[in-house]
Amino acid sequence: MKITEIKTYLVNANESQRTGRPRGRNWLFVKVFTDDGITGVGEGGGWPFLVAKGIEELSYFLVGQNPFNIEEIWLRLYDILHGHGATGAVRGGIISAIDMALWDIKGKALGVPVYELLGGKLRDAIPVYGHASTPEAAKRLLDRGFKAFKCAPSSEVLKSLREAVGYEAEIGVHCHAEFTPAAAIQLGRACEPYRPIFLEDPVTPENVEAFAKVAEKVNIPLATGERFAAKWSFTELLARNLVDIVQPETTRLGGITELKKLAAMAEAQSVTVAPHDGSVGPIVEMANVHVLASIPNCFLL
Does the pTM of the predicted model rise above 0.70? Predict the structure, then answer.
């Protein structure tokens, strides 16, 4: 089997009448076609317009490749992009989209779900969470069957949610890396009485020493990872036991291949996995489901 063509699709690529530039949240989907008639689909994150252009430019390498050689293609793409100075979320978005499509092709060709290719499933359902910062929103999520959600970074908001739903649901606090270490510690201590399941990105995770200060002083599990574009970005946080939950954005991390590897790295440190999905589309959601079904340290989606 050989790859014959790659097509990209930008979804919801609306233009602003004021600036003429794209606005809103855009999704980038990709189709990889083969000479056997099997088509794989994938999704890339990062900056969708640049990622789409990068995928188109890489067609010269991809066409003619055996789509079953997923690991080799992943490594070759990484080397090509790195050699041209393409790093971060753009590189990760390109590789992620192609990687998901290749796993899709392989599963279809062999007639098995992707989770079977990843070692088989360990569970039949994946726990999910939503977003709620008002009691009304939290109750709506409960009515829909959610058992967990995350809220704005405020102890008062967290308190109001606990008063509204009690401990029927787990609640996380998402900080968007907006705080200094001192402010994050103050927030964390104020939230502790309400037993949140995590404090997400209390400080910028690239500043490991700042993250360490918060980890030392706050008695809440810390979560991070949506900004990272490779498994190596998690290495020091994991090695120093500074993170309790990794939250990779699979569309910029490197796809199914990289998520599975990161899950193994996290498992070795007794850390759980909760892929971030706040800005992604349906294809990566399904990719995440297959990986989470196959790993022992699944936490939330």
Answer: yes
